Every structure is written in C-alpha cells, then in structure tokens.
Amino acid sequence: MRELAKFGAVGALGFLVNVAIFNLCIHTFQLAPIRSGVISQVVAIVTNYLGNRYWTYRETDKNRIHRETMLFFLFSGIAMVLENGVLALSHYGLGYTSPLADNIAKNVIGLGLGTLFRFWSYRTWVFRAKGAKGADRSKEQGEPAVHAPASGGGGRVRVGNLAAEEEREDRRQLLK
After folding, report:
1. Cα–chain-centroid distance for residue 9?
2. Total domain count for the chain?
3. Both 101 and 153 in a single domain?
4. Low-confidence ranges of the chain (pLDDT < 70)
5. CA distances from 13 to 43, 55, 65, 116, 117 (A)
6. Does the global pTM surpass 0.85?
7. How far apart are CA 83 and CA 110, in angstroms?
8. Residue 141 to residue 164: CA distance in whole angstroms
9. Do 94 and 159 have their domain in common?
10. The pLDDT of residue 167
11. Are residues 103 and 144 in the same domain?
12. Residues 113, 89 within the same domain
C-alpha cells in the first residue's frame, strides 16, 4: 500500500508537469496536439523516472541500473503511445478538437490507461525487489518456476522471469 501511495505521489507530480507543459505547448506555442502531447509526456517521463528511482523504489536492486533505465523508458514509451493514441483517436478520428476534449482524451482517459500499464510494468519488470529471483517472484505471482522455451527462443530455458544465464549470474553475485 505504501508503494502504491508513493507511486501515486510521483505520478501526481508527473501529471501536473504533463498537463502544464501540454497546455503551454498548445496555447502558448500553438503546437499541434500530438506534438504537444509527446513533448509533455517526455518531460513527465523523466520527472517520473527520477521520482520512482530515488523515492518510490529506492530500496530495489540497483545492480542492473542500465537494464532498469532501458526498460523504464521502453515501457514509458509504450504508455506514451497509448496516451497519445487516445488523443489522436479523439482529435483526428472522432473530431473532438476543443481544448477541453483534447485534455480529457489525453490527460484523463489516455493517462488513466497509461498509468495502469506503467504501474504493472514498472513493478513487474523495471524496479525489481532486492534479491528477488525469478523462481521466488514466480511463486509470488502463482506462475510455474520454470518455463519451457518458446519456439525460436534460442534454446534458453526461462526460470521465472529470468533467463538461465541471468540466474547463474545472480548466484555468482551472491557468492562474492
């Protein structure tokens, strides 16, 4: 519950940054809605990364910070497409072009969908608990610990959410 509250506080700050920059770009700089949405979302993503990394999930494993950063921005990019896709559908597809309609589409509906996706993906893939092994995490999530490789998977056997090579590297780190 505490994690959700912190995530929500960081998200609220990101929301304020997102809405302020979106409206600044549209009304002051007269930029197109989608361009304004992308600019505001990129600034909000950076704000949210800093808040989540150094406050919400500061106790999580920092051994893989490069992987974490890449995944954070990957999942944030997917959420940005969701958010701005709703705006594009509303503005260009359905013809709702008023500033209020743009704000509702982007900052209420799109952001709501994006937030649900981000919370799940950050918690599951990006900010992993310290010492969380694939098998342990699988048990928590009710999944089988070992997954058979998918066709074309390069022959890797997945243990929980980690490839077997990553699992071995984790064991080496514990033995040091």
Report:
1. 15
2. 2
3. no
4. 130-176
5. 11, 13, 23, 16, 18
6. no
7. 4
8. 19
9. no
10. 63
11. no
12. yes
d(CA 119, CA 81): 16
By the 10 Å C-beta count (0-12 exposed, 13-18 middle, 19+ buried), 73 is classed as: middle
* Residue count (the chain): 176
Cβ burial of 106 (10 Å; 0-12, 13-18, 19+) is buried
Which residue range forms the structural domain that includes residue 165?
136-175
One domain, residues 78 and 140: no
Domain membership flag for residue 11: yes
In a domain, 35, yes or no: yes
What ranges in the chain are assigned the alpha helix state H?
2-27, 33-51, 65-88, 99-104, 111-121, 134-141, 164-175
Question: For the chain, first and last CA: distance in Å?
Answer: 34
Distances (CA, A) of 67 to 60, 71, 73, 109, 125: 13, 6, 10, 30, 10
- Domain match, 99 and 145 both: no
Q: Please check whether residues 30 and 93 belong to one and the same domain.
A: yes
Q: Name the 3-class secondary structure at 150.
A: coil
Tokens of 19: 């809405």
CA contacts within 13 A on the Cβ side of 147: 18
